[in-house]
């Protein structure tokens, strides 16, 4: 019997790995695995990892799911870029700054969720206390 594991809905999943008991955090975006962490440490995003996570999610109980939040959009992302520039962060380092604040890769500030944008904003305020919106 060859069954295909369905792709999980887009969103963030938190669960304990069945064999190791490790705390897992997986995020699916556009039907693909976009982020995976084991005990807080980022894991490689391979096709095998995506299949493994999808399989685990299909049969595990006690999986916490949070749907993806609507992104902040271009206007708010642009404001965040301007604030980073005012704080003295070179434009080539804006995504790296946001990635450090969030603990995951960031390819677009406009694609951040409101919660993620606030976390980046808090880190930016700690970096440059004189900064105001």
Structure commentary:
The structure is a single chain. The protein is of the alpha+beta class and 133 residues long. The chain has 4 helices and 5 strands; from the N terminus they run E-E-E-E-H-E-H-H-H. Strand 1 and strand 2 form a beta hairpin. Helix 3 crosses helix 4. The mean pLDDT is 90.
Entry summary:
With 133 residues, this protein is of the alpha+beta class.
Shape: elongated
Radius of gyration from the alpha-carbon trace, in angstroms: 17 Å
Structure summary, number of beta strands: 5
What is the element string, with H for helices and E for strands? EEEEHEHHH
What is the average per-residue confidence, as pLDDT, rounded to a whole number?
Answer: 90
From the helix content, strand content and strand pairing, which structural class follows? alpha+beta
**Total number of helical segments?**
4
The low-pLDDT segments are none
Largest sheet: 5 strands, antiparallel
Spatial strand arrangement across the major sheet: 4-3-2-1-5
Helical residue percent band: 25-40%
The proportion of strand residues reads: 15-25%
Query: How far apart lie the N and C ends?
Result: 59 Å
